[in-house]
């Protein structure tokens, strides 16, 4: 039985969230037999991390999700302390989950061992772990830590008809993150191929949750590194998630790539998982939380939610991520304003709420600096503050006064231009901001009072000029907990 949710004040209307208990990474994101499946790291019994299960939601349209029974639980010796993160792939009409079995092993110096395992389903609901498990272990004579060896992502390379698996890892001295590559003809027998990529400089001591895809002609490796050190106001979260662009040499099993780039500049985005939609788009969902950040919803019997599904594209040599176009179908009401220019703080009738979508086209020819308050209380003492300073070329998200657990600021570089486009998703305790069509994204949790719902536009230096403002109410996309 899942933990009961006792209060819905922070519970989202349309983002995937815990049905009671703790969730972290998205897992096994896939399209199978006409539906999108998303699994996730799940501890059903408390609102804290514990022995990991795989929770499961399903959707026909990427926006209306339903909960399904738990897909994986720690039952075998090789996963006795948790079914950790992994991916999914279809083969011969069956759905394969490839996941990490976590086992505490005090008898070895590392203290625990992680191996890769498979569970198969014919209906997409019930999964059977296979007798061949574990299917991949860390080869002992290579420079691979046998403990930290997890989060397999599997794909098929159509060019040579073979399957590949990347596994997150670190060197035995624990100082350097890396990705291990395996190869298989049948998904069951896996051969170690090589260390595909390894951290250089300030790129972290452990690479978690690798994901891989060829997107618009580029081999993209997504990783969630631990141990990247703060550089001025960059890398301020405890862990990061980002990507490389490059080219895999499947013969040698190595990846030649450019520099590490962040996928998100907010407080709360980690361990994203990608999949391919039937129409060829690459989709991504991330955990909209961050390790060790406070989560006041734990008092209400749940913890953790996912970002909206995003599309990944490549533009001007960089990855951009935009909300999936399906989200437009969630819109239930629209309010729209055009050509507004003002020197004093402004509210617009109908533009407020604890959830919804705000789309803004801002003219920056005269505006040097502006702020936008989200979830502001009537007296404005509680507010989440977005700001842009054109001279500094910085967009900032400040949650000092946002509500419970407010703690500082995150910033992201946005080059000065005459126009700026913002698409902002609000959902009770989550804010996702897409800047200039996904060139930059900031995802953060906030915990305001339910009655702090004002949205206020504040000119700071020069007129605030808005070419177009649209505010949409959005429908319900995730079953709402019933409170007795
Ligand atoms: C990332 C992670 C993964 C691991 C999982 C355990 O957030 O640490 O590396 O598989 O969480 O829940």
What does this 3D model show about the protein?
The protein is mainly beta and 484 residues long. It has strands at residues 21-32, 35-43, 53-59, 66-72, 83-91, 94-105, 111-121, 128-129, 149-157, 162-170, 177-184, 191-198, 206-215, 218-226, 242-249, 254-257, 261-262, 270-276, 282-287, 302-303, 310-315, 318-323, 331-342, 355-363, 369-376, 384-389, 394-398, 409-413, 419-427, 430-435, 440-445, 454-461, 464-474. The strands form seven sheets. Strands 23-33-24-29-30-31 form a six-stranded antiparallel sheet, with no helix packed on it. Strands 4-3-2-1-20 form a five-stranded mixed sheet, with no helix packed on it. The protein is globular and about 65 Å long. The model has no long low-confidence stretch (mean pLDDT 97). Bound molecules: beta-D-fructofuranose (FRU). Beta-D-fructofuranose (FRU) binds at residues 24-25, 41, 52, 84-85, 100, 150-151, 208-209, 270-271.
Short description:
With 484 residues, this protein is mainly β.
Topology (elements, then pairings):
Layout: E1 21-32, E2 35-43, E3 53-59, E4 66-72, E5 83-91, E6 94-105, E7 111-121, E8 128-129, E9 149-157, E10 162-170, E11 177-184, E12 191-198, E13 206-215, E14 218-226, E15 242-249, E16 254-257, E17 261-262, E18 270-276, E19 282-287, E20 302-303, E21 310-315, E22 318-323, E23 331-342, E24 355-363, E25 369-376, E26 384-389, E27 394-398, E28 409-413, E29 419-427, E30 430-435, E31 440-445, E32 454-461, E33 464-474
Parallel strand pairs: 1-20
Antiparallel strand pairs: 1-2, 2-3, 3-4, 5-6, 6-7, 7-8, 9-10, 10-11, 11-12, 13-14, 14-15, 15-16, 15-17, 18-19, 19-21, 21-22, 23-33, 24-29, 24-33, 25-26, 25-32, 26-27, 27-28, 29-30, 30-31
Bound molecules: beta-D-fructofuranose.
Beta-D-fructofuranose (FRU) binds next to strand 1, strand 5, strand 9, strand 13 and strand 18.
